[in-house]
Design brief:
Blueprint (H helix, E strand, L loop, with lengths): L1 H17 L15 H35 L3 H18 L6 H5 L9 H12 L1
Amino acid sequence: MLLRFILSLVFVCFIQNTCPAQENGGPPKKDQTIKSKRKLRKADKKKWKEDRAAKRAEEKKIKAHHKRIQTKEVRKRMKRSKGKSQAIRANKRESLIKRLFNKQGKRKTAKQHKERISKVKQ
């Protein structure tokens, strides 16, 4: 009895393996060839570059307009502060000469102030 069950199980397994797996006969065909994929990728890259260039040009135009509407003194101040901010962002100190002759660094003591006033009165 056990032998019949095993033989019938093996027979069923062989029958299932011989059945066709696909009705239409073979793997599905590729929609795109390698060359067409390459062309599409190249076109996408070209479009991306054009979009990026247009976006950068627009940003540059906006910055130029912003600078153009400022007065001369403000443009100079903007230039100085830009350099200072870049140095700070790079975690670098300003040069020694700039630090020595910086207006903020020169604080007069009370003694120097009194001497100056006394010289002016004389």
